[in-house]
Specification:
This protein is α/β, with parallel strands linked by helices. The protein is built from twelve helices and eight strands.
Length: 301
């Protein structure tokens, strides 16, 4: 009893009885995928004490995207004519889904919104909707529309002339006008298409890692998103702190195009320029290359 009393006195003297220091809020990273992507998270960030959540974009769920005709042996005749769950979806739908997630997680701490590739258009317009709820935007080799209206506009510039994205047309299936979406057979065993896709997306990956990545990708993508005005408003998107992670080996969004988009956005909002980082990565980073991206994100929290 005496020992306990003494320990209690020491505890009070040490200030333990005083109000506790407020616990640091946990940052939530919200990830928005690019074309044909699925909602993804970064488990390493979670292990470092952050929260991570992927936005489930409409039409990208497995229920609507996958069909027995897409399995092996494939029935491409049937697969080419299936109605698409992406028919009629727009950039506004992607933004709505993203904003819904941001609104929820913003109740629990800072929010960092991360977009890759075509997901850059989504996070820009989400920032237009809820700029005060987003602590930072991160573009990971992603499209930024600022002086030009659309993704297609930027893909038509001289800086995009070497892009290998156009070679992915070798995997196209079906008539977009009929199915109301663009459809790619990522499970194709056509060597010409596989060579083109690997070079465009993951030239430095092993065949196993590359094929595993293709198996995570959904066949269909909305037609309208690349041709929709995705410019951010200076008074909204333009006020949110932002980081651009350049992928130095990206052959889909070539480095000169990444740099042009960064420069034009900075010219539009000179008081809020990009914090620019560079990683040695292709368009779809290998697991090893992504470690560097995780390090960057962790330091932004």
């Amino acid at each position: 009893m005496a020992s306990a009393a003494g320990a209690g006195a020491l505890t009070m003297a040490a200030g333990v009885g005083a109000p506790k220091k407020k616990r640091k809020e946990v940052t939530t990273f919200v990830f928005v995928s690019g074309a044909h992507g699925a909602a993804g998270v970064d488990p390493e960030l979670a292990m470092r004490g952050h929260r991570t959540v992927g936005v489930g974009l409409q039409g990208h769920d497995a229920t609507g995207q996958f069909h027995i005709s897409y399995q092996a042996p494939q029935d491409l005749k049937t697969f080419a004519t299936l109605p698409s769950p992406m028919a009629g979806l727009t950039l506004d739908d992607y933004v709505e889904a993203t904003v819904k997630v941001v609104r929820r997680v913003a109740n629990y701490g800072p929010v960092i919104l991360v977009g890759g590739s075509m997901g850059g258009a989504t996070i820009t317009k989400a920032a237009d909707e809820v700029p005060k709820l987003i602590d930072r935007l991160v573009y990971s080799s992603a499209f930024i529309c600022s002086k030009m209206r659309t993704i297609v506009d930027y893909l038509s510039t001289p800086e995009a002339s070497t892009s290998l994205l156009f070679g992915l047309a070798k995997g196209a299936v079906g008539d977009p006008a009929q199915i109301k979406a663009s459809r790619t057979n990522w499970r194709s065993n056509n060597p010409e298409f596989l060579r083109a896709a690997k070079q465009a997306l993951m030239a430095d990956a092993s065949d196993g890692e590359f094929l595993a990545t293709l198996n995570t990708m959904s066949p269909d993508e909305a037609l309208s998103v690349p041709v929709t005005d995705a410019r951010g408003r200076v008074e909204a998107w333009g006020r949110v702190p932002r980081t651009y992670i350049r992928h130095s080996r990206d052959l889909s969004i070539p480095l000169p195009l990444q740099d042009r988009m960064i420069r034009e956005a900075d010219e539009l909002t000179p008081k809020n320029k990009f914090d620019v980082k560079t990683v040695d990565a292709t368009h779809a980073p290998t697991a090893k290359a992504y470690e560097k991206i995780t390090d960057i994100l962790h330091k932004l929290a």
